[in-house]
Amino acid sequence: MKKDYYEILGVQKNASSDDIKKAYRSKAKTCHPDLNPDNKKESEEKFKELSEAYEVLMDPQKRQLYDHHGHEGVSQTFRGGGFSWDDFHHFEDLQDILGNLFGGSIFGDFFGGARSTGQRSRRGGDLHVILSVTLEDIVNRVTKKFKINRYEACSACSGQGGHDLVNCPQCGGRGQVRTQSRSIFGTFASISACPQCGGRGQIVKNVCTSCQGQGRIKKQRTIEIKVPQGVAQGQYIVLRGEGHFGPGGKGSIIVEFEEKPHQYFERRGYDLYIRMETPYSMLINGGVLHIPGLNGSKEKVKVPKGSTAPQIVRARGKGMPRPDSGRGDLYVELDLKPLAKKDKELKDVLEQLKKYEGPSAPLTRGR
Length: 367
What we know:
By secondary structure, the protein is α+β, with helices and mostly antiparallel strands. Among the domains are: 1-88, Helix Hairpins (Orthogonal Bundle), CATH 1.10.287; 266-355, HSP40/DNAj peptide-binding domain (Sandwich), CATH 2.60.260. The chain has helices at 5-9, 17-31, 40-58, 60-75, 91-102, 117-121, 135-140, 280-285, 344-357; strands spanning 127-133, 143-153, 162-167, 176-183, 186-193, 202-207, 216-226, 236-240, 252-259, 266-268, 271-278, 287-292, 298-303, 311-315, 330-336.
């Protein structure tokens, strides 16, 4: 079982970003593999676990998903379904935290060698959308539309930020610069993103006038999705590659579902609850109630003979659809329907009814 992210960093759940960064700074310096040559493999795993916690808690959207849904809530935001260094977006923080102490060696073979930190950090951001749905939407799996404003690649420069690309004179097109530094721990090689080209390896001679060199332009788009079967309040889906554009790749759209209150039904998991006015004659003799269905048709629920009010009748398989297959149950609470007419004829009927009811009597305890 995975450890709690807050516990890994040693911070409270209400910790600020500064508190989280301070905790990461402190722990990263002690568990970095270069400081633990005799236990490097374990240190690498611990350092990765620490960085995973930092990645989630420093991202407001990921942190919110984790607080509400735990590890399962953020797993889909990682590209492979689980954290890897490709999902880490805070390499500049690592350089700031450990660069002077280790000469930037954390950006060498430990993190994938030639892949530049600039490219990693410039992946497009994610968008978080809350989509309101009704029980009818869920049952009928309707198609919903919503608008977003996202950054897309500039069509004028194909996302390059300009025209006439040439190799960066500082890094020679490699996107990285390598330096060496000495410390009390020895000599360390530093591989970091080229400051002139930002790790891209190329620069533009002529800056694009459409995007002012940014390589992307904000546009409004309409997104369509089909409501997943059986989706519930707080659950979400991830639309990968539909988020903001960035040189390091596109982000995702995280669609969280918000269930609207229903006029008649209350949902509990995949079961539905409803209260129905039931005539006294049906309680005595039994009968069939016609429940308003979420798919437009009526659901028939049998009322057993000799029922009372209040009493709950269970109709199996007539609740909400489950994500895999089958449905939950429908629970109908029987409430006595009040008599509308109070004329002499009805009064005579009630007087006759007294003969069959008999006198009232106390009930035994626990009944």
